[in-house]
Amino acid sequence: MKGRMRPYLPELTIRDYNTYQWYQRGVRRQLYTTYGLYSCYGLRYNGVLFAVLADSLAGRPATCKRMREPGTLVWRQMMCQTQGIRLAAQVEVLLGWHKLQDRRCDELPFKQRVKRTIDRILLRRAYEKAVQENPALERLFEQEQEQAIVQMNLNYTEAAEPMSNIYGALYSTLATDENSQRKSMRYIGSCIGRVFYLLDKAGRVTGDKRVGRYNVYLVNGVEDPGAALENARRQSLAVANDLVRAYGMLDVKLNKSLIDNIMILGLRHAVEPLDPENQPVRWELP
Questions:
Q1: Are 223 and 206 in contact (CB under 8 A)?
Q2: Among 7, 55, 2, which residue's Cα sits nearest to residue 264?
Q3: Tell me: the pLDDT tens digits for 202-212?
Q4: Distance spanning both ends of the chain, measured CA to CA
Q5: Which of 276, 195, 211, 197 lies closest to 243, judged by CA?
Q6: N or C: which end of the chain has fewer CB within 10 A?
């Protein structure tokens, strides 16, 4: 799995570790049963957080059952299908599909071109089904793409605004009917989208410079990857601090310690490692 919104394992309790694992398997199972086996391999940590947040804010306790993991003969405990898990699966499929459209074929090496072609063929049916189930989400992604083309400029804040807006809209759908909670979730999603944009662009400076692709750091004269990453971390830390303040106003009914870990420590660790000497995270107990 990939993605930045993951728990910070050294501070995670065993109970929360198990809850996260059960949700992760539940979302993967939902992807498998609804959209096919191939869609499972695109699952990211962000989708698991989406499912946990949706159920926790609404106070919907999920039922844990022993079921077979997709593509294996192994039976494990996992969360059953909930509204949050179904929504997370839809978001994962749409995010995965639009990520495939993020770069032109002529910018990719031959092997990546072949892989992307295969991905598009095998994911198309899942994408079309997700659009039929939730056309409102697809409209959000289309608006973000149109806005991204228009807002290619020097300003870091304006360049990050399209991704910030799409994540703000996605996270606002997780809120209950309370207007204050919806505003807080939109702001939290916007902060997450801005952090993702800044770090992603900083990691692509070398490749974008080679193919002549737009990159907000190159436009601002930052051509060294290390300097771009340092710039991204500095801006992302300020955004993460704003996110923590907004998150403190939420009424999280379930799994609060797990969500605290992800929102406060996990995001902070993704921006700048809390323990640089830490060994790589292992998501299965030995």
A1: no
A2: 7
A3: 999 998 898 88
A4: 19
A5: 195
A6: C
Closest CA to 16 of 247, 248, 260, 253: 260
Residue keyed to tokens 């807002």: 151
| 3-class state of residue 44 by DSSP | strand
Decide if pLDDT at 31 tops 90. Answer: yes
Q: Is the pLDDT of residue 138 over 70?
A: yes
Neighbours of 157 (CB within 10 A): 12
Residue 135 tokens read as 């056309």
User: At which residue do the structure tokens 């996990």 appear?
Assistant: 266
213: three-class secondary structure by DSSP: coil
Q: Among all chains, which residue has been given the structure tokens 């801005």?
A: 194
Place of tokens 């601002």: 220
d(CA 193, CA 187): 10
- Contact 69/76 with Cβ under 8 angstroms? yes
**Calpha distance 189→172 (Å, rounded):** 7
Could you read off the pLDDT of 258-282 as tens digits, one per residue? 999 999 999 999 998 887 665 555 5
Contact by Cβ (8 Å): 215, 205: yes
